[in-house]
Amino acid sequence: MAKLQLNIEGVHCKSCKMVIEDNLQELGATNIKVTVDEKTQKGTVACDYAGDKLDIVNAIKKEGYKVVK
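Below the sequence we write its predicted structure tokens.
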């Protein structure tokens, strides 16, 4: 299971987290859990994904969110 601690700027509601989860599903990830504190923009993305972790970051950026490790 991949587990990334990230700052994801632009996440302000539950729908934002669902958009990220949908993009990760399209990538082929399973068992996806996205948690982000809307105030601090700090969060965790956990999922089963056999590919590179950079693919996960790029899937988040695809929707316009800024990712800072």
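Residues 1 and 17 are 19 Å apart (CA to CA).
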